[in-house]
Structure formats: structure tokens, C-alpha cells
Specification:
Layout: H1 2-26, H2 28-37, H3 45-61, H4 65-83, H5 90-112, H6 119-122
Length: 123
């Protein structure tokens, strides 16, 4: 049963990144504007899309799970600090905590790797 729960957990934690990466492809100008509003260079758009989209897919299928989970955990913490640091706004506080919680899930995934139903377990 653990292998199925693990697969469902990987899907649930990663699907937000697949959608976020695809959304950035759909509106690159808007995303660049948002990134630049917090002082980040727009050139980071495409590496961000690659990490979110390809990293999300890698987590779902369980490919290089430990490495990708580390990368996405760090990404979540950086995103929380850069984009959701206005604690006077309750929604920004919730988004900050969401990113930190997802990072926690990725740290746990990084410690276990993908179990059972994954590319990693077949190698």
C-alpha cells in the first residue's frame, strides 16, 4: 500500500509545479514583470519554467527523485522569501506558509526517494 500512497503523494505535491510552469509559458511577459517587480532578472524565467515543469514531471514519475526534491525544496524556500514576505497581508502569509510546507514535503521526499512505482525503483 505504501508504494501507492507514495505515488499519490508525489503527484499531489508536484502537480502545482507542472501547472505553474505551463502557466508561465502561457504568459511569459506577465511572469517577467512579476519577477522584475521583486528585483529578479527576467532571464530567470526560462530556468524557472524548466525547474517547475520538468521537475514536477520528474517527481510524478519518480525520476532522480532525491535530487529534484532537493532542488524544488530550495526553490520553494527562495520563492517564499522573495515573493511572499509581506506579513501584513494575510494572503501573503498563507502563501509564504504554503511554500514552506511544500518545501517540508520535498525534504521528506528527498530523504526517502521514490518508492515502488517510480523510474528510480526500476533502475
Amino acid at each position: 500500500m505504501n508504494q501507492y500512497a507514495h505515488l499519490v503523494g508525489r503527484i499531489l505535491i508536484a502537480v502545482i509545479f507542472v501547472f505553474a510552469g505551463a502557466g508561465k509559458i502561457a504568459d511569459p511577459a506577465g511572469t517577467i514583470g512579476y519577477m522584475e517587480s521583486v528585483g529578479l532578472p527576467g532571464l530567470l524565467l526560462w530556468p524557472t519554467i524548466a525547474l517547475e515543469l520538468l521537475g514536477g514531471i520528474a517527481i510524478i514519475v519518480g525520476f532522480q527523485t532525491r535530487l529534484v526534491a532537493w532542488l524544488l525544496a530550495i526553490f520553494c524556500i527562495v520563492a517564499a522569501v522573495l515573493f511572499h514576505r509581506d506579513f501584513t497581508d494575510p494572503m501573503q502569509t498563507v502563501l509564504f506558509l504554503k511554500d514552506i510546507a511544500i518545501a517540508g514535503g520535498f525534504f521528506m521526499l528527498a530523504s526517502t526517494g521514490a518508492l515502488g512505482l517510480s523510474v528510480d525503483s526500476k533502475r
